[in-house]
Request: fold
Amino acid sequence: MAGIPLTRASQLIHVTNTLERHGLSAERMLEDAKLPMWHFCDPDDLIPTHHIYTLLDRTARKLGNPAFGLLVGADNSVATLGTFGRLIANSLTTYHSFATSCRLIYLHTSAAHNWLTEAGDVVWFWRSQFRGPEAGRWQLEQYVLMRLIEHVRMGAGPSWQPAKVCLQTHEPPGVELREALGDPEIFIGQKVTGIAVPRPLLAWPLKQRGIAPLPWPQDAQARLQRTAPAFSFVDTLRQVAGTLLKEGHPQVGPMAEITGLTIRTLQRRLASENLTFSQLVDQARFQAACSLLEDDMPPVTDIAMELGYSDSAHFTRAFKRWAGVTPRQYRRIKLEC
Reply:
């Protein structure tokens, strides 16, 4: 059974960052859109991709700004896309940043794919995107377009503009986009979004601009791999439940709304996998606990609170029931491996 397309929360946090920079309440906009308070998540947490579409669309309509997605992209750098963004920003050259993005995009989202093609004196940097709800699709494409351009600007500087752009939208781009991009040659109605990059720019070293280097990039990538977006229905649901643990014990009603299903349909789909909703939440808690315990920094008491337990004793009993060892014993075993 196909899963829910998931994306790291950093993309939605970009939207709420722009809201707050323009004096709007992120909490109110999320509440109006009937979405959880995702902007309080860790940027690397996983959320349903269609929620980003929803928030972009509702905000653009509220502000009366048809280029809101473009504004969000311009307001936020690639480097702030959580661990994925920092890995890209720590690349050596523009080409290296492209290659890193193409190689690791599956760790950031299950809803997109990046790749490069050569065409004479230019290289095209492409992005295919999960075609979510019609509402918000154009806003998300504008945001994606700015993300592609930002890869080049990290080396070529903030004033660089593409000479050619491919867009999936069938509507002629407005004056706002043309002015923001320096009036490039635009091809609409394409299957994917892309920009043409002159070959000489590929070798330009990136300007770090205060970005702290990752001391152990392989460790950072390994952390992303352990939590990569899943593809099956139950696995993606479990990952969303893991993100919701930070707001308290996930409830079946809100989870059904998040996934766009009725409560009955959600329970029926889980039953077909021999699972109850309560068991799914327990599994999400266990996975989150293991991930946190593999880091030797957070105290067990803090982990218990983060997972929604009233005290560490309740957490210890539950974890021992799942794993046969206490959280402290599990941490010691993992650290000794």
